[in-house]
Amino acid sequence: MLDKLYVIGGVTGALFLFGIFSIVLLQVGANLIDFISSALTGHAIGLTIPSYAEIAGFMLAGASFLSLPYALRHGTHIRVNLFIQRLGSKGQQLTDIWSFLIGTALTGWLAYYAWELVLESYEYGDLSTGLIAVPIWIPQVSLALGTTLMTVSMLDGFISSLMQKDFFIKAENADLGAE
Which segments of the chain have a pLDDT < 50? Predict the structure, then answer.
């Protein structure tokens, strides 16, 4: 069940990346139309997507944080494998236990305060500063959800390490959701 949750986070992150691509592509197209109009008529039409850079930034935060658990499960986060591989199986297990324990504590702390930030932004009615005033708690939810999912995946890795199970999906088994 947790693997499916990590896949949902990864797919949602990928959709946010596609959203960034789409909004930037549309703005580039609008700039091109303005350039052609200016060259032909001497006047630009003034096409623009309001707050496109800000919205793309919100999507980037969503893509980054929601994809974290999927990346962790597939072993694509930075690890010092050169060092870890020399420790032997017991040393690797202890290193994983220690790393996942610290990771669980840190991401749990981050998730807690991310949700506090969402609640505070909602209560105060904070709005973004762009042309389109977006309630800031909306993009903050993706950060809070992503850190919460990351905490769950760290805890999953910690328990797997305690049970002497390999948490990471190997590259040859890295189909979406398949093991």
Answer: 172-179
* Of 44, 154, 50, residue with least CA distance to 105: 154
- DSSP letters spanning 134-172: -BTHHHHHHHHHHHHHHHHHHHHHHHHHHTT---SPPGG
Residue 129, number of CB atoms within 10 A of its CB: 9
- Greatest Cα-to-Cα distance within the chain, rounded to the nearest angstrom: 73
CA atoms within 13 A on the CB side of 65: 22
Q: Per residue in 5-47, pLDDT tens?
A: 999 999 999 999 999 999 999 999 999 999 999 999 988 898 8
Determine the Cα–Cα distance for residues 36 and 43; give it in Å rounded to an integer. Answer: 9
Tell me the whole-structure pTM to 2 decimals: 0.82
